[in-house]
């Protein structure tokens, strides 16, 4: 059995030095960026019976779908005890890049990643409309304009966080998405009946859907219906687990829940810039908040070898930035603690790889 985490963007870039965002001020702006994505009541009412019929499983007898300020969410419908299995979703109803039409998949360049391939799957199912076998699930997903990850922010909104790692990564991710779209567009053009009306904005929305809702393992990303209605709490110990032998994904309660209480899981150990980039929200008290500082050691530096040896000696992994031929880039992490309105920095002995 292995744990799965929300993918965020799954595209990481070298991170430049940056300034901090004062979340006390920024939270006023973020209040309006909550993902208020609500499906119609008829869509919600028909979704779980459809999923249980399609999978042949009782997905959950303990949870129900309701609206919260975060959109569609999962709540306890009965008393839940710590250790209870609160949902099970078999692999047979996971939506992955393996669902991509073989004739389309065979034409895509090898460098097109799992997230982009799964985004194309979502686009195809959206195009099919009610004829799609996944229609009850697709109809519950956010519509264009209902996602608030940083790639959808206006220039004015992005200027509010400049300079910062969030600003830099948002710009780089948008550029990467454009390159990805241009790389796969020739393959899509081979199927005009399917993709003739698909524009970059459609791909961008589908990509963001997958990046914010899919669960990732070391080899694949999956959209897991019902489980993707779970919202994030960085302090939660509940995570999605996948059992390869049983071919199911499940969540085990880490605490007791009274009926009507919202179920929260931890998407991963994400800093606020990662939450904003991938999901469109931030936490005022985030135990995983961090600052990253990039250090370049030029290959032409006479002390290049000595500096790398010193870094290695002090447990700093050697990470090469392949985007430049002239330097080897190290990204150091500093934990950030907000104490009595003052930022207190604590050095951290590990390095987050780019």
Automatic annotation (TrEMBL):
<dbReference type="GO" id="GO:0032259">
    <property type="term" value="P:methylation"/>
</dbReference>
<keyword id="KW-0808">Transferase</keyword>
<dbReference type="InterPro" id="IPR050600">
    <property type="entry name" value="SETD3_SETD6_MTase"/>
</dbReference>
<keyword id="KW-0489">Methyltransferase</keyword>
<dbReference type="InterPro" id="IPR046341">
    <property type="entry name" value="SET_dom_sf"/>
</dbReference>
<protein>
    <recommendedName>
        <fullName>SET domain-containing protein</fullName>
    </recommendedName>
</protein>
<keyword id="KW-0949">S-adenosyl-L-methionine</keyword>
<dbReference type="InterPro" id="IPR036464">
    <property type="entry name" value="Rubisco_LSMT_subst-bd_sf"/>
</dbReference>
<dbReference type="GO" id="GO:0016279">
    <property type="term" value="F:protein-lysine N-methyltransferase activity"/>
</dbReference>
């Amino acid at each position: 059995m292995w744990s799965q985490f929300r993918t965020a963007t799954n595209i990481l870039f070298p991170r430049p030095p940056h300034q901090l965002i004062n979340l006390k001020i920024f939270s006023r702006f973020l209040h309006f960026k909550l993902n208020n994505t609500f499906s119609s009541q008829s869509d919600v009412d028909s979704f779980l019976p459809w999923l249980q019929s399609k999978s042949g499983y009782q997905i959950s007898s303990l949870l129900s779908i309701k609206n919260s300020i975060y959109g569609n969410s999962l709540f306890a419908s009965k008393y839940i005890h710590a250790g209870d299995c609160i949902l099970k979703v078999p692999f047979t109803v996971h939506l992955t890049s393996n669902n991509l039409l073989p004739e389309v998949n065979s034409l895509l360049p090898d460098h097109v990643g799992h997230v982009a391939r799964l985004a194309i799957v979502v686009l195809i199912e959206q195009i099919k409309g009610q004829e799609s076998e996944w229609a009850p699930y697709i109809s519950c997903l956010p519509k264009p304009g209902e996602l608030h990850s940083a790639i959808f922010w206006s220039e004015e909104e992005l200027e509010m966080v400049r300079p910062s790692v969030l600003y830099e990564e948002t710009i780089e991710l948008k550029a990467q998405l454009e390159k990805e779209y241009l790389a796969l567009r020739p393959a899509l053009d081979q199927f005009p009946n399917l993709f003739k009306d698909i524009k970059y904005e459609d791909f961008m929305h589908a990509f963001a859907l997958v990046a914010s809702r899919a669960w990732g393992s070391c080899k694949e990303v999956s959209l897991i219906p019902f489980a993707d209605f779970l919202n994030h709490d960085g302090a939660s110990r509940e995570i999605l687990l996948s059992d390869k032998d049983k071919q199911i994904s499940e969540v085990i309660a880490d605490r007791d829940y009274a009926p009507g209480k919202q179920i929260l899981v931890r998407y991963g150990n994400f800093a606020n810039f990662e939450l904003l980039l991938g999901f469109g929200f931030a936490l005022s008290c985030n135990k995983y908040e961090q600052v990253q500082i990039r250090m370049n050691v030029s290959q032409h530096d006479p002390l290049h070898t000595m500096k790398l040896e010193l870094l290695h000696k002090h447990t700093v992994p050697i990470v090469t930035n392949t985007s430049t031929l002239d330097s080897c880039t190290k990204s150091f992490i500093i934990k950030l603690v907000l104490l009595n309105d003052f930022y207190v920095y604590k050095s951290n002995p590990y390095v987050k790889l780019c």
